[in-house]
C-alpha cells in the first residue's frame, strides 16, 4: 500500500522544486508567509519525519486509535490556520534557493531510504498519534499537499 505513496511523494517533491523560483512571492490575504516559507517548512517536515522513522525500532511500535487521524486522513485534509509548526520545522528568516535545493535533495534521499523500511517503522505525531510507515507516508502526502495548495493560492493572479 505504501508503495503507491512513494511515487506520489516524489511527484510532490517535483512540484516543490518547480515553485522554488517563486520563493519571494507573497499574498497576505492567503498567508502571512511567502512561498519560500511554505516550501522550506514542508521540506523540513519531510526530512525530519523521515529521519525519525529511519531510526525507529519497529518492535517498539504501539498501535493507537486517533479520532482526528481517522477523520482527516481519508479526506486528505488539514484545516488552514489551526496548527502551529513546532520550532524544529520553522524556516529561517532568510530562505536561500541553495538551501531549498539542498533540502530537496535530502528529501529525495530520505524517501528512497524509507521505501524498504518495515511497516512498523513509525513516527509519533503530536496531533495524529503513533503512525505506522504507511500512515506516516500518508501524513507526509497530506501535509505537503496542504502547503502546496497554499503556494498555488499565493501564486494565483
UniProtKB/TrEMBL annotation:
InterPro entries linked to this entry: DinB/YfiT-like
Domain of life: Bacteria
Protein name: DUF1569 domain-containing protein
UniProt source species: Flaviramulus aquimarinus
Amino acid at each position: 500500500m505504501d508503495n503507491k505513496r512513494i511515487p506520489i511523494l516524489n511527484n510532490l517533491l517535483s512540484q516543490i522544486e518547480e515553485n522554488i523560483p517563486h520563493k519571494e512571492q507573497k499574498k497576505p490575504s492567503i498567508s502571512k508567509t511567502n512561498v519560500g516559507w511554505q516550501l522550506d517548512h514542508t521540506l523540513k517536515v519531510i526530512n525530519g519525519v523521515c529521519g525519525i522513522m529511519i531510526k525507529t525500532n519497529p518492535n517498539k511500535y504501539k498501535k493507537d486509535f486517533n479520532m482526528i487521524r481517522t477523520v482527516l486522513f481519508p479526506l486528505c485534509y488539514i484545516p488552514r490556520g489551526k496548527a502551529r509548526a513546532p520550532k524544529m520545522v520553522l524556516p529561517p528568516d532568510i530562505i536561500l534557493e541553495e538551501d531549498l535545493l539542498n533540502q530537496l535533495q535530502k528529501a529525495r534521499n530520505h524517501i528512497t531510504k524509507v521505501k524498504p523500511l518495515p511497516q512498523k517503522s513509525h513516527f509519533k505525531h503530536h496531533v495524529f498519534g503513533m503512525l505506522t510507515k504507511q500512515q506516516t507516508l500518508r501524513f507526509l502526502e497530506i501535509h505537503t499537499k496542504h502547503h502546496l495548495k497554499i503556494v498555488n493560492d499565493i501564486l494565483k493572479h
